[in-house]
Design a protein that fits this description.
- The structure holds two protein chains of two kinds.
- Helix content of chain A is 25%, strand content 17%.
- By secondary structure, chain A is α+β, with helices and mostly antiparallel strands.
- The longest helix of chain A has 11 residues, at 2-12.
- In chain B, α6 (161-187) packs antiparallel against α12.
- In chain B, a hairpin with a 2-residue loop joins β2 (19-25) and β3 (28-35).
- Chain B is built from 15 helices and eight strands.
- Chain B has helices spanning 43-46, 52-60, 67-82, 88-116, 120-141, 161-187, 189-195, 203-208, 214-217, 225-228, 233-236, 249-273, 322-333, 342-348, 353-357; strands at residues 3-7, 19-25, 28-35, 150-151, 154-155, 288-297, 300-309, 314-320.
- Chain B is an alpha+beta fold.
Chain lengths: 129, 358
Amino acid sequence: MGMLNLVLSNISRKPATRLYPFEIREPFKEFKGRLVFDPENCILCGICQKKCPADAISVTKADKTWELNVFRCIMCTECVNGCPKECLSVSNERPKTGAKETIKVVVPIVEKPKANTPKAESSKAASSK
Amino acid sequence: MTTIIPFGPQHPVLPEPIALKLEIDDDVIVGVLPSLGYVHRGLETFVNTKDYNQTTYICERICGICSALHGITYTRAVEKLFDVEIPERAQYIRVIVGELNRLHSHILWLGLFADGFGFESLFYECWKYREGVYDVLERITGNRVIHSISKVGGVTTDLTKEYIDITLKMLDTLEPQIQNIEKVFVNNYTVKKRLVGLATMSKQLAYEAGTAGPTLRGSGNAIDVRNTSDWDIYKDLGFKTCVEDGGDCYARTKVRINELYESIKLIRNAISKLPNGEIATPVKGTPTGEAIMRTEQPRGEVVYYVKGNGTRKLERLKIRTPTFANIPSLLLTLPGAKLADVPIIVLTIDPCISCTER
């Protein structure tokens, strides 16, 4: 009579589901929701583009842009682990419904002066700080 | 006079499209003709455009239910090709996530099966329990369906103390819940009337038809890749193959329920024996040669064949999935059955058509 017990105990129990739009489950802190790009330290090396299995990231050195196609991204976090400057991180928030397909960021990269004169070297050190 | 009626590709009991042309005489089936190919995606060719590590993510997307085990099998095959040893801790984490994967897959199947024979509240009950497993997997790996735990050379996420605690806590609540639903599946009069003696396959027939997984073990063949292949960890963890002798739908259900307990035992043993150390070794190179790897998935034995040609990309990837091996058993057991029993018989092989067609 296992089934009858299950059904009877379910009558007196609270529903197992949530009343969705009014009661939203907070995402777990480990949940891979979306990529967060911090252009501050980016050197446009393009490693994230090479590592991406879904071809979601494109880095253009000429225009100094970093572009992410949110719909293609599969949240594997290969780029996050591969980034040498730790510009990429994961947030546990989902991309909002109706969000734009692509995120385009212009990277404020500091032009590296050629390191043949001592003067140029000092200015490079200053810029990296 | 016989009539041909189509079963599928769209049918209430089938989550995925497979078409069976049933030749019926009055109410009894006399012939079956399957037709596949509705969800072919060409993933085996697609891997030629990606490198070794990126291919892991494609292999995981072959199937949503056994995604972790697809990834694990692929990475083990590639590691065999590279001839690298991965850290022991990584191997244990793979076993833990793989068995969690099997847990939720079998509970999903039990729910679908209950729905197939008309026990709707049992169906919801099973899927309610499955959410607990999914929550743990989501917390460990960060993803709900495609876990991406395995990478070439190790695993992506470490199993910290916090995750071990939530896993053990989940198993402690899940075990009595499974015992609850087991009573219904095993002892209920209606269920037994419906399943016992249905679509019986003898031990010899199941072996000769080349079936795999619970379909094979439900007929009394003690063949499980976790025991027979070169994946030694399972032997250290005290794995015991679950076998039933009935050969009918009831026996296959019992095999799957026993495997749930076996998986819980394996996860507990693996956590208690979890060694310390690294979780991944760097793997570099462009290997040539070929490798074959077998793993036991929830539905049976999966075989991966990989061939490298000295570049960063695979030359050939070939996958033999368990459902493909189990479809011949349908053609052998369906003739003689009644039309009303077809949904149950089709469900007992646990068909995963996305795997089969890739």
